[in-house]
């Protein structure tokens, strides 16, 4: 069996086969059962932190599977080839599998109600009709309990070329049950005339007006400064481990900085956790659209192959993702993550002194770890970016194609335009891009110089001056530790937030720390009792803190699909656990609203959002003083 070389490596193909063979031999996985996922069951944090190269380590896996119409979770010890646990999960639904998503779209085409509704629209040949299975959101109807549901709208791809989203068959939707493979209902709200012909976004159809530029490349003519060995990455003073998971995609662990020969802990783990995407249209065919892109679909499973020279520089390092298909066979997704360095074109520091006519500056380079999951019409790019001064930027790029709705209006001058555009923007004739939000939560397990940390708020308080001068006021910093877990309710612009070491200080006596610098921080505006908001309650706040717990990883809980209850982060933190001078985890939600615009059609230019982790008294001085100047690099 191909062996892992690091305790945080993802499961190998041989380990996946061994886990499935064990389930079969134990009578838990027959021909009718299906694997949803098999992933690494991480070893205890203290074991991983203490592990040294050459030492042995345990290997365990968690398998989620569907059998006999029920959901099960298996815990497997790969070293002893034993089943450590096998539990039925109650009234919950697992994430969708690729097989389900691919097959569900064919079910409406066999239903006479749907066929009749299509005939009303003059469509009897379904060869160019693609039906798109969508998760249904929270399910409260007791009659639907235990069913595995999808809502299925369709699009007409006739003449569409590379854009499948330009001709929605509006006001028609089927609901299917994946367990029984039946169509439960077909809702037809009336015929909407088809939109204009779908434009292509191929270069040949672009008009080709601008001149072809001279090539601009990121190159390393003397070789790469990045070392990648399996999942271990080293660059500049940084080292960390990367693995790929079917649910969240890239997981970065054991993030450390070499401070003049001392490898200092910065973070134990950094990864995506959940993505909530609610659309803002009350129509029956749209109001359910409030997706959990990670918990219902999976960022790793849907990660696209990154293309050298287009998605990443040609000299990037590429990592593959190995997952299980529904029958337990390993499947390799090539180039799911790329790792590369790039010059920013900016100085990392500089100063020109006019008095004595001196100037010093240093160029900044960055290391980027990138993945690009594609969830239906949306392409996301998730970057983890390291610089030479100890900063870590977490960036989310929104790309792809708007989700569109067919309407009657061609332009805003049409009589029906006010009604048709109440919840979105016309991007073509009879085609509306619907308003929506994105709330991407990242799990940030900081270990600033060890696991004993505390979260502090540096609040800015105004102090009035009563002296003789003309100055009347200034602000001061009041530092307050956060004692217990929960949402951070202090406005993000009224304080700065830092994770401090409980034991280490720099040479000046300050506790070493890292600052979390907010970027995009919109929070959900939906009513707290809205069913779609209840299961995404984490999106009501930008920042949360929780006590570290190994199995608390997903902001909306393990199984958000069809869930109607509050789960995950709000549920865990209700315990009000102490977090001061302890091992704690931060959760930051990159929130942004998308009011579509004409420029988003037929394909969107990318828009980036994110936040930064920045050393704050972590070092004794500027850590980038020893960055070589350009003259040294070009010798």
Name the features.
3 domains; Beta-galactosidase, Chain A, domain 5; ten-stranded antiparallel sheet; Nuclear Transport Factor 2, Chain: A; 635 residues
What would you say this structure looks like, in words?
The protein is mainly β and 635 residues long. The chain has three domains: 13-89, Nuclear Transport Factor 2, Chain: A; 98-205, Nuclear Transport Factor 2, Chain: A (Roll); 227-318 and 331-361 and 368-633, Beta-galactosidase, Chain A, domain 5 (Distorted Sandwich), CATH 2.70.98. 9% of the residues lie in helices and 41% in strands. It has nine helices and 33 strands. The strands form six sheets. Strands 16, 17, 18, 19, 20, 21, 26, 27, 29, 30 and 33 form an eleven-stranded antiparallel sheet that branches. Strands 10, 11, 12, 13, 14, 15, 25, 28, 31 and 32 form a ten-stranded antiparallel sheet that branches. A hairpin with a 2-residue loop joins strand 23 and strand 24 (431-434). The protein is globular and about 80 Å long. The mean pLDDT is 95.
Overall number of structural domains: 3
CATH topology of the largest domain: Beta-galactosidase, Chain A, domain 5
Our estimate of the beta-strand percent is 35-45%
Main sheet makeup? 11 strands, antiparallel
Q: What low-confidence regions span 5 or more consecutive residues with pLDDT below 50?
A: none
CATH superfamily of the largest domain: Copper amine oxidase, catalytic domain
């Amino acid at each position: 069996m191909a062996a892992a070389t690091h305790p945080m490596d993802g499961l190998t193909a041989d380990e996946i086969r061994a886990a499935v063979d064990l389930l079969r031999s134990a009578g838990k996985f027959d021909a009718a059962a299906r694997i949803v996922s098999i992933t690494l069951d991480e070893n205890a944090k203290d074991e991983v932190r203490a592990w040294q190269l050459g030492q042995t380590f345990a290997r365990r896996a968690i398998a989620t599977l569907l059998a006999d119409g029920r959901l099960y979770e298996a815990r497997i010890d790969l070293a002893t080839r034993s089943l450590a646990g096998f539990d039925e999960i109650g009234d919950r639904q697992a994430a969708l599998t690729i097989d389900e998503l691919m097959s569900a779209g064919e079910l409406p085409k066999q239903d006479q109600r749907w066929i009749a509704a299509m005939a009303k629209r003059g469509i009897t040949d379904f060869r160019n009709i693609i039906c798109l299975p969508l998760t249904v959101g929270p399910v409260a109807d007791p009659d639907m309990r235990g069913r595995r549901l999808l809502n299925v709208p369709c699009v007409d791809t006739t003449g569409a070329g590379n854009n499948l989203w330009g001709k929605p068959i509006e006001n028609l939707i089927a609901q299917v049950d994946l367990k029984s493979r039946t169509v439960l209902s077909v809702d037809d709200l009336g015929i909407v005339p088809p939109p204009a012909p779908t434009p292509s976004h191929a270069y040949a159809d672009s008009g080709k007006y601008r001149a072809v530029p001279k090539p601009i490349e990121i190159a390393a003519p003397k070789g790469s400064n990045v070392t990648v060995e399996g999942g271990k990455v080293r660059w500049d003073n940084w080292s960390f481990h990367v693995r790929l998971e079917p649910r969240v995609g890239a997981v970065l662990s054991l993030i450390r900085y070499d401070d003049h020969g001392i490898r200092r802990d910065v973070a134990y783990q950094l990864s995506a956790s959940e993505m909530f995407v609610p659309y803002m249209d009350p129509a029956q065919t749209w109001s359910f659209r409030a997706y959990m892109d990670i918990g219902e679909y999976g960022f790793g499973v849907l990660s696209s192959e990154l293309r050298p020279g287009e998605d990443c520089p040609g000299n990037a390092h590429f990592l593959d993702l190995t997952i299980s298909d529904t029958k337990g066979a390993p499947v390799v997704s090539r180039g799911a993550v790329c790792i590369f360095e790039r010059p920013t074109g900016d100085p990392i520091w500089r100063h020109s002194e006019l008095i004595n006519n001196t100037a010093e500056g240093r160029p900044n380079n960055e290391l980027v770890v990138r993945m690009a999951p594609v969830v239906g019409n949306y392409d996301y790019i998730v970057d983890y970016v390291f610089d030479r001064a100890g900063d870590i930027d977490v960036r989310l790029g929104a790309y792809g194609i708007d989700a569109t709705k067919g309407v009657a209006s061609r332009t805003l001058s049409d009589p029906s335009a006010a009604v048709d555009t109440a919840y979105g923007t016309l991007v073509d004739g009879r085609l509306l891009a619907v308003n929506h939000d994105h709330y991407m939560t990242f799990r940030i397990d900081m270990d600033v110089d060890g696991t004993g940390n505390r979260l502090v708020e540096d609040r800015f308080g105004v102090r009035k001056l009563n002296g003789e001068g003309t100055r009347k006021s200034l602000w001061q910093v009041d530092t307050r530790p956060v004692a217990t877990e929960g949402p951070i309710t202090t406005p993000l612009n009224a304080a700065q937030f830092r994770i401090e070491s409980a034991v280490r200080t720099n040479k000046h006596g300050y506790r070493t720390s890292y600052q979390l610098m907010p970027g995009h921080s919109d929070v959900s505006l939906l009513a707290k009792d809205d069913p779609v908001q209840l299961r995404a309650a984490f999106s009501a706040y930008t920042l949360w803190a929780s006590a570290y717990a190994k199995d608390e990883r997903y902001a909306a809980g393990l199984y958000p699909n069809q869930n109607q209850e509050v789960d995950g982060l709000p549920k865990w933190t209700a315990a009000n656990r102490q977090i001061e001078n302890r091992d704690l985890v931060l959760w930051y939600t990159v929130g942004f609203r998308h009011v579509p615009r004409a420029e988003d059609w037929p394909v969107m230019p990318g828009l980036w959002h994110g936040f930064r982790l920045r050393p704050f008294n972590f070092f004794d001085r500027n850590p980038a003083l020893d960055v070589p100047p350009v003259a040294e690099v070009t010798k």
